[in-house]
Amino acid sequence: DIVMTQSPDSLTVSLGDRATINCKSSQSVLYTSNNKHYLAWYQQKPGQPPKLLIYWASTRESGVPDRFSGNGSGTDFTLTISSLQAEDVAVYYCHQYCTGPYTFGQGTKVEIK
Amino acid sequence: QVQLQESGPGLVKPSGTLSLTCAVSGASISSSHWWTWLRQPPGKGLEWIGEIFHSGRSTYNPSLRSRLTIIVDKSKNQFSLTLSSVTATDTAVYYCARRDLRERSGGMDVWGQGTTVTVSS
């Protein structure tokens, strides 16, 4: 199985500041046939199902604010929230859907300082 | 808009069988999407269980394969999960979700609200 490791486990950021979450996969999640990284980011607020933010490592899902951005390649990826808002308090998960079984990172909890 | 709704017993006895259904509304289950089951144990992260296409083609997590069946019912526009020989470690919130084809995004863009299943005598 591809192991997804996120860092840090938790993050406390002031309103308006940048938040960066890292995700490392134990194997490449690059699908060579189309040169796409099959890596997504999800946001989960308490008591709610996850919400898709980013797919193909860097493509923002429709309706997701542009303060959320994804980057990376190969085995190292980041999710950045450029200016943290109160409504961004949540747990964030990276997810690889390149090779079965599809797997998730352990999650990063983002809180307000 | 597309909505998914999980249903099934909230309590299952150890060694019993867990059965859940996900009703799809606002879209046809015969659309080009994968229909996915995931779960989240209390206070823990997400686990991908498996998924099915409307053709019946399915893919399962090997860790659950020996106990797992996922089927699609096109006449009722729903898909179902059956997990046998359950233990306390199967206690979780179970989610159903719609996954786009990987060539389009591969993202799970629609989720059910989740249903809590507890395995206990």
Uncertain spans of chain A, ≥5 residues at pLDDT below 50?
Answer: none
The helix/strand order of chain A is EEEEEEEEEEEEE
Give the helix/strand class of chain A: mainly beta
Please tell me what the overall shape of chain A is. Answer: globular
Q: Percentage of helical residues of chain B? A: under 10%
Count of strand segments of chain A: 13
Radius of gyration of chain A: 13 Å
Stretches of chain B where pLDDT is under 50 for at least 5 consecutive residues are none
Quaternary class? heterodimer
Rg measurement of chain B, Å: 14 Å
- Euclidean distance between termini CA atoms of chain A: 36 Å
Structural class of the helices, strands and pairings of chain B?
Answer: mainly beta
Would you kindly provide a written description of the structure presented here, covering whatever features stand out?
Chain A has 113 residues and is mostly beta strands. In chain A, 0% of the residues lie in helices and 51% in strands. In chain A, a hairpin with a 2-residue loop joins strand 9 (68-73) and strand 10 (76-81). The radius of gyration of chain A is 13 Å and the shape is globular. The mean pLDDT of chain A is 97. Chain B is mostly beta strands. Chain B has strands spanning 3-7, 11-12, 18-25, 33-40, 47-52, 58-60, 68-73, 78-83, 92-100, 108-111, 115-119. In chain B, strands 2, 4, 5, 6, 9, 10 and 11 form a seven-stranded mixed β-sheet that branches. Chain B has a four-stranded antiparallel β-sheet with strand order 1-3-8-7, with no helix packed on it. Chain B is globular and about 40 Å long. The interface between A and B is medium-sized, with 26 and 23 residues.
